[in-house]
């Protein structure tokens, strides 16, 4: 499996604090079946002042240590990017890294309030030749009132990434409900860990993937952690990625929906 969202680089954001933490996270990921992992620290002016060259240097140092210790995990560069002025210029200059140098990058909206002009700004990024991957929409405080917005972003060409832990209740019943809804209704392109530690937010995909299998079947679940992440790393155009064929049975979706409505309120 491929995990395209992980805060594994030590000491540069709110993820791994030390090299030992990073190595422990890497071992957990490998034991879970993850062979490639994107190092995606936050880039948030005024709080996390990371940039492309600095992230690449940190990735190289951690990869060298993984290789020295015989931990079979390939690291690629990325970032968890906030929607700020000058983002397109930052990507073009390399200050803001995309995932493995591709057209795809992780875009993290504000958790508490919907960004002004979100649809227009995402459209501008797409017109500029990039594919934003909106991270963990199921965990945003404003998802209830803006669910149709995310569907319109997908129609524009954006992708959605759901957190594996959200599907297992790590972030509470509300995030679980919305995570299952995004996947169950076919509005999810990627499943990732968004891991920060070896504790509650650890780098494991398998438990969340099992939930996805129950919702959409084995083939589509595999696309969430294998085919589409591989397409991202190889910079395939969205139209080159095999179309999703969500095959969730109506009876399954009905049971899932009725069981989650009350808990989401």
UniProtKB/TrEMBL annotation:
<dbReference type="GO" id="GO:0030145">
    <property type="term" value="F:manganese ion binding"/>
</dbReference>
<keyword id="KW-0378">Hydrolase</keyword>
<dbReference type="GO" id="GO:0004725">
    <property type="term" value="F:protein tyrosine phosphatase activity"/>
</dbReference>
<keyword id="KW-0808">Transferase</keyword>
<dbReference type="InterPro" id="IPR016195">
    <property type="entry name" value="Pol/histidinol_Pase-like"/>
</dbReference>
<dbReference type="GO" id="GO:0016740">
    <property type="term" value="F:transferase activity"/>
</dbReference>
<comment type="similarity">
    <text>Belongs to the metallo-dependent hydrolases superfamily. CpsB/CapC family.</text>
</comment>
<dbReference type="InterPro" id="IPR016667">
    <property type="entry name" value="Caps_polysacc_synth_CpsB/CapC"/>
</dbReference>
<dbReference type="Pfam" id="PF19567">
    <property type="entry name" value="CpsB_CapC"/>
</dbReference>
<protein>
    <recommendedName>
        <fullName>protein-tyrosine-phosphatase</fullName>
        <ecNumber>3.1.3.48</ecNumber>
    </recommendedName>
</protein>
């Amino acid at each position: 499996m491929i995990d395209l969202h992980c805060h594994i680089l030590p000491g540069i954001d709110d993820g791994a604090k030390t090299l030992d933490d990073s190595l422990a996270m890497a071992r957990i990921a490998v034991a879970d079946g993850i062979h490639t992992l994107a190092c995606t620290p936050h880039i948030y002016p005024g709080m996390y002042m990371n940039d492309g060259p600095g992230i690449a240097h940190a990735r190289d140092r951690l990869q060298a240590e993984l290789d020295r210790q015989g931990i079979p995990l390939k690291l690629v560069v990325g970032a968890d990017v906030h929607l700020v002025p000058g983002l397109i210029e930052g990507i073009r200059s390399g200050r803001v890294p995309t995932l493995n140098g591709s057209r795809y990058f992780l875009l993290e909206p504000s958790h508490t309030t919907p960004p002004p002009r979100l649809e227009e700004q995402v459209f501008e990024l797409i017109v500029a030749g990039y594919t934003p991957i909106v991270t963990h929409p199921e965990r945003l405080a404003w998802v209830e009132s803006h669910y149709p917005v995310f569907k319109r972003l997908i129609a524009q060409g954006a992708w959605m990434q759901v957190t594996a832990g959200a599907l297992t209740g790590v972030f509470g019943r509300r995030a679980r409900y919305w995570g299952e809804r995004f996947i169950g209704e076919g509005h999810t392109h990627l499943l990732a860990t968004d891991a920060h530690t070896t504790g509650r937010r650890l780098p494991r995909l398998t438990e969340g993937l099992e939930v996805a299998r129950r919702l959409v079947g084995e083939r589509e679940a595999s696309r969430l952690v294998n085919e589409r992440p591989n397409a991202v790393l190889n910079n395939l155009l969205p139209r080159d990625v095999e179309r999703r064929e969500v095959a969730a049975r109506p009876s399954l979706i009905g049971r899932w929906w009725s069981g989650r409505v009350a808990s989401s309120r």
